[in-house]
Design goal:
30% of the residues lie in helices and 28% in strands. With 483 residues, the chain is an alpha+beta fold. It folds into 2 domains: 262 residues, Zn peptidases (Aminopeptidase), CATH 3.40.630.10; 211 residues, Alpha-Beta Plaits (2-Layer Sandwich), CATH 3.30.70.360. The longest helix has 18 residues.
């Protein structure tokens, strides 16, 4: 079976089209051109703002002219992650999809269901001629994954409706009414290059096999962080007798993904090479036992390499390793208002050697409480300042405070009960949605967020439950009709 044979055919057909269009964050030109062409083909009004956001408007059907306008919103970009052994050019190659039972995934890359399925749902509603509705405004935002740029730049007079349905959550049957705010913290370590000493055992150590995941919604899942695991091993080698030397280090990629892989190239005195192998085997057994439930494929590989041309000076390497070892990762605090909701967290996302003899450490902090977000940002910043790094911050984005008295929430609850004879779960999410930024410019918006079942988003294991897409579609249609 292929995507085009799945039901409902309209939404799956558009999702297939979307998988064929490369759309990395900040490189969304082709998907935006596709949307404008779609509007032209369906004789729908479309406009685009300076940031690239597109709004396609569909008039009310006959007899529904007085119904409230409904804004449907999704972002067009996708997280681009792949397994190390997969050859894929996200700038040019389509996503290769695989159907396994009731799930659809990609072949070694992210699927892009986050948020391609939301875009597909918007297009299906805009194209449909058998759904009764008031005026629909379909908002397609850009660059959600790396900076929320589209939501930040949205103009205050771009939208006219006061009801917004965000299509960017990942659990069918759950209605989200709040989300965390976030901020990125980066640290830059300056180092000097030194000539690599002779008569050393040089080796590459690599942490791999981790699942990865979303740094918000998966932060409490007990997943391993490749950067933290690698640093634990490096820290254990910093005994003077080994005379550890660091030549190269790297791990992780995106600020909103828990890193799956990390590596370092190291040297120790030749006589200690067997000690290192024994130490690694012991360390690997320990961490595999720690993560046996959540990371069954965790592995650490060691192989000898040729002597590198240069190494990082000792003082800088020690400061970096100590800082990474001490840097917090994971849940900082749970919500006191909503049972089971992570309130505050931080993610040690990436370590990269960049130009000008700098090592960049990327982290991201989230909280549904603004003061707690500031607290954890300052905690991470203080650590890196003490280590002598230069610290910078992203602009950050606000959270979306839940409104349990929301009118669209009440309607959505009634619709779900009528459709499936059970209650929808009303939740807030520990992840960044664009809704908080929309509220800053449109304070009268009444909002909910819904979506189908997805797992392992922001990683190559991302997959979407096929049967849940049909339920999500039926639910969305009935909400729009009920409004």
């Amino acid at each position: 079976m292929t995507i085009k044979e799945l039901q409902p055919s309209a939404i799956w057909g558009y999702f297939y089209d979307i998988t064929q269009i490369p759309r990395p964050s900040k490189k969304e030109q082709r998907i935006l051109a596709y949307l404008l062409d779609f509007a032209k083909q369906h004789n729908l009004e479309a406009k685009q703002d300076k940031a690239g956001n597109i709004l396609i408007t569909k008039p009310a059907t006959k007899g529904r002219e007085d119904a409230p306008t409904v804004i449907l919103q999704a972002h067009v970009d996708m997280v681009c992650e792949k397994n190390a052994d997969v050859t894929h050019d996200f700038d040019n190659d389509p996503i290769e999809t695989i159907i396994e039972g009731d799930w659809i995934k990609a072949n070694g890359t992210t699927l892009g269901a986050d948020n391609g399925i939301g875009v597909a749902a918007q297009l299906s509603l805009l194209a449909a001629d058998d759904i009764a509705h008031g005026k629909i405004e379909a908002l397609f935002t850009v660059d959600e994954e790396t900076g929320l740029t589209g939501a930040y730049s949205l103009e205050k007079d771009f939208l006219s409706g006061n009801i917004l349905i965000n299509l960017d959550t990942e659990e069918e049957g759950e209605v989200y009414i709040g989300c965390a705010g976030g901020k990125g913290t980066r640290a830059y370590f300056k180092y000097k290059e030194k000539e690599a000493p002779k008569k050393y055992f040089w080796f590459r150590v690599e942490v791999k096999g981790l699942r990865g995941g979303h740094s918000g919604s998966d932060i409490d899942s007990g997943l391993g962080n490749a950067n933290k695991i690698l640093t634990r091993f490096l820290h254990s080698l910093m005994r003077k007798k080994y005379d550890l030397i660091l030549s190269e280090i790297g791990g992780g990629n995106l600020h909103n993904a828990i890193p799956r892989e990390a590596h370092a190239i190291l040297g120790v005195k030749e006589r200690y090479k067997e000690d290192i192998r024994v130490k690694l085997n012991t360390f690997l057994a320990d961490v595999q036992e720690e993560y046996r439930q959540t990371e069954p494929n965790l592995d650490i590989h060691l192989e000898s390499v040729q002597i590198p041309s240069t190494v990082i000076n000792r003082k800088a390497a020690e400061k970096l390793i100590l800082a990474l070892y001490a840097c917090p990762h994971g849940v900082i605090g749970m919500s006191r208002d909503i049972h089971g909701l992570v309130e505050t967290s931080t993610n040690l996302a990436s370590v990269k050697m960049i130009d000008n003899h700098l090592i960049e450490v990327g982290t991201s902090q989230r909280s549904s409480v603004e003061s707690q977000k500031d607290y954890v940002v300052n905690m991470v910043s203080s650590l890196f300042n003490l280590a002598g790094a230069k610290v910078t911050h992203s602009e950050g984005y606000p959270g979306w405070k839940p409104n349990p008295d929301s009118s669209i929430l009440k309607l959505a609850e009634d619709v779900y009960k009528a459709l499936y004879n059970k209650k929808a779960k009303v939740k807030a999410i520990h992840a960044g949605l664009e809704c908080g930024l929309f509220l800053e410019k449109y304070p009268n918006l009444d909002m909910i967020s819904i979506g189908p079942d997805m797992t392992d988003v922001h990683s190559p294991d991302e997959k979407m439950k096929i049967s849940s897409v049909g339920k999500f579609w039926d639910y969305l249609v009935k909400i729009v009709e009920a409004v």
